[in-house]
Amino acid sequence: MTPHTSATYGLLALLAIVLLAAAVGDWRHRLIRNRLNATIAAGAPLFWLAIGMEPWPGMALQLGLALLVLAICAALFALRMLGGGDAKLLAALALWVPPPAFAELVLVMALAGGVLAAVMLIGGPRLAANRPAGLPYGIAIAAGGLWVLPTLSA
Fold first, then answer.
1. Mean pLDDT, consecutive 10-residue segments, the chain of 154 residues?
2. How high is the pLDDT of residue 4?
3. pLDDT for the residue 150
4. Calpha distance 53→112 (Å, rounded)
5. How far apart are CA 138 and CA 19, in angstroms?
6. CB under 8 Å to 114, separation ≥6 — which residues?
7. Model's pTM, two decimal places?
8. Would you list the domain boundaries of the chain?
9. What torsion do the CA atoms of 97, 102, 108, 114 make, to the nearest 10 degrees?
C-alpha cells in the first residue's frame, strides 16, 4: 500500500532522528522541546502525501486519532500523571501511526516505561546524578515509535 519512495524513507529517517533527539533530551534535561514535537507533527502531512494517503478516510482517521490521544494525554497531564512534552510527543506520533500499529506502539511504550522505571530504581543515585527528578517517559514513547517505524513503510 505504501509506495517505497526516497521521500517516504527520508521522512521516516527524519522521524527516527527526531524521536532519538527527544529521548536524549528527556533523559538529560527531563524536557522534550516543542520544536521536536512540532517537527514530528509538521512532517506527518508530508508523509501522508508521500505514501499517497487519501483525505477520506485516511487523513481524517489520523487526525481523529491524534485528537483523541491529545485529549487523553491532556487529562493525564492535568492529573500530573504525564508531562506536557510527553503528551505532545505521543499526540504528534499519532499523526503518523495508523490505529492498529498505534495500539502496538502503546504496548511497547508501556513495557519500555516499566523497564525504564525498574532500571532507574535499581540504578538509584548513579542514574539521577546531575539530572532533574522524574521518569523521562519520552524515552519509552520514543521506543514505541521506533518499534513501529518499520511497519509504516510496509
1. 76 98 94 97 96 94 98 96 96 97 98 93 69 85 98 84
2. 63
3. 95
4. 30
5. 9
6. none
7. 0.92
8. 6-152
9. 110
CA dihedral over 19, 21, 33, 129, signed as positive or negative:
positive
**Is 51 in contact with 3 (CB distance < 8 Å)?**
yes
- Contact between residue 58 and residue 7 where contact means Cβ atoms under 8 Å apart: no
- What is the CA 112 to chain-centroid distance, rounded? 13
Q: Which amino acid is at 116?
A: L
Enumerate residues 6+ apart whose C-beta is below 8 A from 53: 59, 62
Long-range contacts of 14-22 (CB under 8 A, 24+ apart): 14/39, 14/43, 15/40, 15/43, 15/47, 15/96, 15/145, 15/149, 16/146, 16/149, 18/43, 19/142, 19/145, 19/146, 20/142, 20/146, 22/85, 22/89, 22/138, 22/141, 22/142
Q: Give the C-alpha separation, 134 to 127, whole Å.
A: 11
DSSP 8-state secondary structure symbol assigned to residue 100: H
Please enumerate in sequence order all residues whose Cβ is within 8 A of that of 65, keeping only pairs 6 or more positions apart, or say none: 94, 95, 99, 102
